[in-house]
Write a structure and sequence with these properties.
The chain is mainly α. It contains 21 helices and six strands.
């Protein structure tokens, strides 16, 4: 389970980036046969490339059946000759869905300098990139030569001579991966994820330079962001997404997890079910998309279930978490240290203290303190 791995892994940067790229290259698991390939997509396309070179990640997603089926490229083919039986029967033809999202979302960005004609030409380049079926002895990527448009294409000013095959697609992905617009688009999204909903231009420029100077090395690009002053100046200002809230809550209390679907169901109720966003843009990153009254109530409900030990499939050793703390003041100090990282605001600390004074037993105090701390505004920020 993706949630269990994110909670238990000692390689947290790897997990954070796997989540980031899975959202960037979003697929919808409930569309047709995509559900058969969704787990493989995460494990074989996203995870191995999450901290490598962006071009390798781009190729891996472009060739994966989950993406080819989700955005309909598996059925994209060169138009049949006019007047042919296939043309009269309206058989197949070019599908622009993947080509458009490849340019707008995955690489150049909506303002990346491409035109509608570029979308069409990209779709032509990628005709034949398809999926094999059970009757072919496999369930994977397959290039179908007979479906490929072998005519000349021009993408972003670069000519692809007539007669090319699968190699055209690889050349195209290389062209897009090294494009300055791709560097800026990815830099902005990464700074939006790690720095601020409206990232400073200096952060974006620094990350884009690092990307271009390292041939699209994701580690180098991340390091440039982490070393920027904007990264540290904005700590604690971003609202956690539901997934980040759940994972951080479970990690902060040292939760022990059992194999169960309850956590996935909880995430669904919070509005961020795994691989369940139907639109190619993926789940939103900015606070305004998650900061609603309904979302706040759902988070508080999750925090209450976790804090009081009523979240199925999850166990928390509150005695170990709170050590020997028993009085209200001791528990507040302990929870501020263990869960809030000693960053609880005076308002939160006072609220916790006031609420605990009327609770009789130490066990109940610990449960109430844990629920309130996890549901507090302080814990919702990263």
């Amino acid at each position: 389970c993706q949630i269990v791995r994110q909670v238990a892994s000692q390689r947290q940067v790897q997990e954070v980036m796997a989540d980031f790229w899975l959202n960037h290259f979003n697929v919808f698991a409930r569309k047709g046969l995509v559900k058969l390939y969704a787990a493989d997509y995460v494990e074989r396309a996203i995870r191995p490339n999450a901290l490598g070179r962006f071009e390798d990640l781009l190729v891996a997603t472009a060739r994966h059946p989950a993406m080819l089926l989700y955005l309909d490229n598996a059925k994209s083919s060169a138009p049949p000759p006019p007047g042919s039986p296939a043309a009269r029967q309206h058989r197949r033809g070019i599908t622009e869905n993947y080509a458009r999202e490849l340019l707008e979302l995955h690489t150049l960005g909506v303002d990346g300098g491409y035109t509608q004609n570029d979308v069409i030409e990209v779709a032509r380049v990628l005709t034949g990139w398809s999926v094999s079926g059970p009757e072919e002895g496999d369930l994977g990527y397959k290039f179908r030569e007979r479906l490929h448009d072998r005519g000349e294409k021009i993408v972003l000013g670069q000519t692809y001579p007539a007669g090319g095959g699968e190699d055209e697609g690889l050349r195209l992905l290389h062209q897009l991966a090294e494009h300055p617009s791709t560097a800026r688009h990815l830099a902005r999204k990464l700074c939006e994820r790690f720095v601020a909903d409206r990232p400073p231009a200096s952060c974006v420029e620094s990350a884009a330079r690092a990307y271009l100077g390292s041939n699209g090395d994701i580690r180098v690009t991340l390091r440039a962001i982490e070393e920027s002053p904007e990264f540290w100046e904005n700590r604690g200002n971003k609202l956690k997404s539901p997934l980040r809230f759940v994972v951080s809550a479970l990690r902060s209390v040292g939760a022990k997890l059992e194999p169960t679907t309850h956590l996935s169901n909880a995430l669904n109720r919070l509005g961020q079910g795994l691989l369940l966003e139907p639109v190619p843009t993926g789940y939103p990153e900015t606070a305004e998309e998650w900061a609603s009254a309904g979302s706040a109530l759902a988070r508080m409900h999750f925090a209450t279930l976790l804090g009081t030990g009523r979240l199925p499939g999850v166990s928390v050793d509150t005695q170990q978490l709170f050590k020997s703390a028993e009085t209200a003041d001791q528990i507040v100090v302990s929870i501020n240290d263990a869960v809030l990282g000693q960053s609880g605001s005076p308002r939160t600390v006072k609220l916790l203290t006031d609420q605990l004074r009327g609770v009789e037993s130490p066990e109940q105090r610990r449960a109430v303190a844990l629920a309130l701390a996890l549901g507090s505004p302080d814990f919702q920020r990263q």
